[in-house]
Amino acid sequence: GPNMKASVGSGVCAMKPHTSFTQPWEPAAKGIILNFRTPPVVFRDRELHRSPEPMSAYTNLTSLWKQKSKSELRSPETDLKTSLDECIAALDLFLSNRFEDALTKLHSKAKDSMYHSLTYATILEMQAMMTFEHDDIISAGHTMKEAQEICQRFRKKSTVVGSLSSLVNKSSGDHFTEEEIHAEVCYAECLLQRAALTFLQDENMVSFIKGGIKVRNSFMIYKELHNFMQSNLFSKGHNHSHLEGGINLGIGAFNLALSMFPTRILKLLEFAGFSGDKEYGLSQLHDGATVPNLRAILCAMLLLCYYTFLTFILGTGEEDVTDAVDLLRPYLTQYPKGAIFLFFSGRIEEIQGNLDKAIQRFEEGCAAQQAWKQFHHMCYWELMWCFTYKRLWKMAYFYADLLSKESRWSKAMYVYMKAAYLSMLPEHEAKPFGDNEVELFRQVPQLKQKIAGKSPPTEKFAIRKARRYKSNVPVRLPVPALEMMYMWNGFTVIGKQWKLTEEMLETICESEASLEQASPNEYLEDDKCVVKLLKGLCLRHLGKVLEAEQCFVYIYEHAKKIKYDHYLSPNALLELSLLFIQQDRKEEAIKWLRRAKQNYKDYSMESRTLFRIHAALSKLKAEKEENGLEGTAL
Predict the structure, then answer these.
(1) What is the pLDDT of residues 519-557, one digit of tens each?
(2) What are the phi and psi torsion angles at 344 (to 5°)?
């Protein structure tokens, strides 16, 4: 949904203090300085290193500077520093909710400066990734491609992947100016961000393969740069911390992303033999996020997305949020009204089950700015789920209704959720706006959209579920809001709070009782299995392990009777395995996870389930043993 569906060790980055700045620098907690308005200097519990003098190669001015008159000539290192300072100032505006001001500041030089171009495209990409709107994604992709072409102009003319390593071997590292090295990082970053946008467009395999090619090319550049920077031929330039931050971002993102991908997908991407090192990836991103540099905010955003979204949607949702809290704190201190940081703060409260605090944060995020309306949609989406967890169906309906009117992400999904919430209300209760859930469910298939020729998997799922309402006398879906909540891993959220889980179990048991009384129909076995899956989740979180196990086993034993909801069998085995992990029954868990992975295909939301199975196997350290993969972390 619009919920946002991303190197070089931890050495001290060298920066040379510049005499023209008047504001004093003060060390912040944990060595983090987040005041983008002053030039960054790194304070850690060790000596502050100064950069060596610039390399002699800097005197070879590029063709860009030859076009200028002598009075206008500046050395590339000075120009690089100016560009970086201007881009940091633009990011500061962006984080202060001055989105248009930030883009305007960058746009004037976006055709001439690689950093202005990259930062401009990055802001558009961040917006696209937060709103998930197809038009935003396409626009960001085009802009990032243009940025890549501008970075290409600044690269060393002979540059191809491998030329850096050949330079190291030929002992001629000084052939690279500081600007050319920065151009390599910027070029690799454009490729990486374009890959992320490709994955974002759809969860299908064609997108993964297209994105995979870009990732591989990008990674090869980062790898060569990393090796080059470790060699004795490399000299740190004046802007080294930004270079190092760029490599932290690239290598961190690569390792983290690959560690999350199931082997089946990695093979399709021709990444067979690669396996990202999750811990190494996280440490690289932390290094990049906590040392002042242009990419610090990108590293931080990627980590926050990982901790608060990816581990839930594509993982088991049991990661500790302490790191996310520590990472966010200095940003919230610096930007107390920053809409992006308020949003992440709300999400952290939400996944801990602190729903009232979460609701307050999301409301503050909406009130903080009016310029970027699509950002409100992200908050509405989370508010919708917060009220779902509280079983306040009318409030949840209200936010689904707002989204259906204002957001373009997936009208089919929003209208499905509106109908789902109405069907959760007691029959005698008045329906908001006089809406009727049967009519709404019937609208869902007509709202189908095609993105790159495909519908998003969540939308396909909603359309499949709504099909039964075509009948003149439709069989009602038992608990549609809770079934969709499972798809977004919401039971892990309520599982943090005993009271929320007990109340949800009551609702599920009521539905189960009414299904026992129902007259036979073609959907009955499927509906019973849906309710058993959700009931098992609540029982597991309440510590009633034997009863939970019976629910999941029931689905496995009744698999042949399931006519439509074929996703239930592999997901029941996944949940059964997570229950076994909780009980330290590791061998049984691995057996059932492998069965879930290997014995089922072509079911709803398959890639999401495969990601979750992979996350559980990785937790048990079973994925590498099974596939005999070699790690590729740098």
Answers:
(1) 999 999 999 999 999 999 999 999 999 999 999 999 999
(2) -65, -35
DSSP 453-476: TB--HHHHHHHHHHGGGGSSSPPP
Closest by Cα among 266, 177, 250, 360 to 629: 266
User: Comparing 131 with 64, which gets the higher pLDDT?
Assistant: 131
Tell me if 459 sits within 8 A of 449, measured CB to CB: yes
Range scoring the smallest mean pLDDT among 37-41, 125-129, 200-204, 223-227: 37-41
What pLDDT is stored for residue 450 in this prediction? Answer: 65
Structure tokens at 166: 């050949």
The tokens describing 625, both together, are: 């043993």
Nearest to 267 by CA among 350, 328, 208, 197: 208
Q: Is 432 left (phi over 0), alpha (psi -120 to 50) or beta?
A: beta
Cβ of 19: how many Cβ atoms within 10 Å?
6
Mind spelling out the 3-state secondary structure of 86-139? HHHHHHHHHHCCCHHHHHHHHHCCCCCCHHHHHHHHHHHHHHHHHHCCHHHHHH
- Least Cα distance to 378 among 339, 329, 328 occurs for 339
How far is the first Cα of the chain from the last one, in angstroms, to the nearest whole number? 33
Over residues 585-614, the pLDDT tens digits come to 999 999 999 999 999 999 999 989 999 999
- Distance (Å, whole) CA 534 – CA 466: 19
Which string of DSSP letters, residue by residue, matches 574-625? HHHHHHHHHTT-HHHHHHHHHHHHHS--S-TTHHHHHHHHHHHHHHTTHHHH
Strand partners, 454: 451
Tokens at 431, concatenated: 């329906």
Residue 376 tokens, joined: 């409100």
How far, in Å, CA of 204 to CA of 2, rounded? 18
pLDDT band at 454 (very low <50, low <70, confident <90, very high): low
